[in-house]
Specification:
- By secondary structure, the chain is mainly alpha-helical.
- 78% of the residues lie in helices and 0% in strands.
- 4% of the residues are buried.
- The model has no long low-confidence stretch (mean pLDDT 87).
Length: 67
């Protein structure tokens, strides 16, 4: 099984977005004491974990594809 960087990077960004929006909705709707800072930091961490994949794709596109 070969893992591709682009779908994994997209999935990590979607998960981060879900965590951030879910935390905001949770705080606004039913839990005013919810620590939104922790939710946003978690979402940021999920997105940053795959930043080397994004950087690699940018560099490979700038320099041209190499085998």
């Amino acid at each position: 099984m070969e893992l591709k960087g682009k779908p994994l990077s997209l999935a990590s960004k979607l998960i981060a977005m879900i965590i951030a929006i879910g935390g905001l909705i949770l705080k606004a709707a039913c839990m005013p004491d919810f620590d939104i800072d922790a939710a946003l930091k978690t979402a940021l961490f999920v997105a940053v974990v795959f930043s080397p994949v994004d950087a690699s794709m940018v560099v490979s596109n700038l320099l041209g594809k190499r085998s």
